Amino acid sequence: GGADLSGADLSETCLDPKNIPSGAGDGWEVDPGDPTRVVGYRTEGSPYLCCLDASGQYRVGMTYTAPVFSTSDRECHPGLYLCQTSEGIAQPIKVSSRACDIQRAGAKFRTKEFLVLGKM
Questions:
Q1: Do 95 and 88 contact (CB within 8 A), yes or no?
Q2: The predicted structure's pLDDT at residue 50
Q3: For the chain, what is the mean pLDDT?
Q4: How far is it, in rounded angstroms, from Cα 99 to Cα 93?
Q5: Residue 1 predicted with pLDDT over 60
Q6: 6-29 burial string, b = 16+ CB within 10 Å, else e?
Q7: Letter string b/e over residues 92-108, b meaning 16 or more CB atoms within 10 A of that residue's CB
Q8: Do residues 49 and 42 make contact, with C-beta atoms less than 8 angstroms apart?
Q9: pLDDT band at 67 (very low <50, low <70, confident <90, very high)
Q10: 3-state secondary structure of 83
Q11: More reliable by pLDDT, 54 or 109
């Protein structure tokens, strides 16, 4: 089971909602529909979110928000993970995220939220 953080005081931790993520940085494709957003890629499903469709996949046109988001620079912390390219991702989907909501985590990136633009 997972930890229930509802009601927990997360102040001054990497899970503090007031923390500001590191930002997207270089190497991202800018979303042509909104220059404050970047385009990323990820797997089409997740075993962790309960708001996916019946097949456990993200739906095109839907926005997904991480229930808990970490500004730690370490991998394997809560958030929605995405990559700058689709290379190496089996059945990737294309997503758009606010550039300011992205946190670099080692060699990975995670975001607070993303909009699913389409399947590849």
A1: no
A2: 61
A3: 91
A4: 18
A5: no
A6: eeeeeeeeebeeebebeebeeebe
A7: bbbbbbbbebbbebeee
A8: no
A9: confident
A10: strand
A11: 109
How far apart are the C-alpha atoms of 113 and 7, rounded to whole Å? Answer: 22
Residue 30: beta bridge partners?
Answer: 38
Does residue 71 surpass a pLDDT of 70?
A: yes
Place of tokens 């992205």: 102
DSSP-assigned letters across all residues of 41-84:
EEESB-SS-TTS-TTSB--TT-EEE-SS----SSSS-SSEEEBS
Q: How far is it, in rounded angstroms, from Cα 74 to Cα 77?
A: 7
pLDDT of residue 52 exceeding 90: no
Q: Which amino acid makes up residue 37?
A: R
Q: Residue 119's beta-bridge partner residues? A: 93
Q: How far apart are CA 36 and CA 86, in angstroms?
A: 21
Q: Report the C-alpha gap between 117 and 44 in whole angstroms.
A: 11
Which among 103, 46, 98 is positioned nearest to 70, based on CA atoms?
103
